[in-house]
Amino acid sequence: LAQTLGIHDQTTFLGYREDRIALLRGFDVFVLPSRLEGIPRCLMEAMAAQVPIVASDIPGSRELLDGGRCGLLVPPGDVPSLARALDSVLTPDRPATQVEAARTRVFEHYSARSMAVRYRALYEEVVCGSSG
Among 57, 54, 53, 65, which residue's Cα sits nearest to residue 35? Predict the structure, then answer.
């Protein structure tokens, strides 16, 4: 596709990388224009790396980005809206509030530690509820 579009000289397909988090920290913006996702791990990684995010307004992205509080959401397939969102994220005077909110959200709700706490609470509820 890169060859067909004439962008092969400006495009690099890196494949799997162990250092993906370090690479993310160098991004100006993370863009996920998907039409269908579950809960995208790559979005969580971008949130943790404190990279501004623009993503399609689909259920998994909407949940992670807290309805747009932690990143910009655009209608799936709407290229003009995607371009406007990118322009707004790439302005030098862009406030860092979404990036900070995203990092806080991913650590509070989706980190291994927070998930372990929730699983433990669920297990205790099930065990205590079934024995009482």
Answer: 57
Q: What is the DSSP string of 53-108?
A: EEEE--HHHHHHTGGGTSSEEE-TT-HHHHHHHHHHHTSTT--SHHHHHHHHHHHH
For residues 130 and 132, give the distance between their C-alpha atoms in angstroms, rounded to a whole number: 6
- pTM for the predicted model, two decimal places: 0.81
Give pLDDT, residue 112: 84
| The CA-based dihedral angle spanning residues 80, 83, 84, 87, taken in that order and rounded to the nearest 10 degrees | -160
Residue of 21, 33, 23 lying closest to 103 (CA atoms): 21
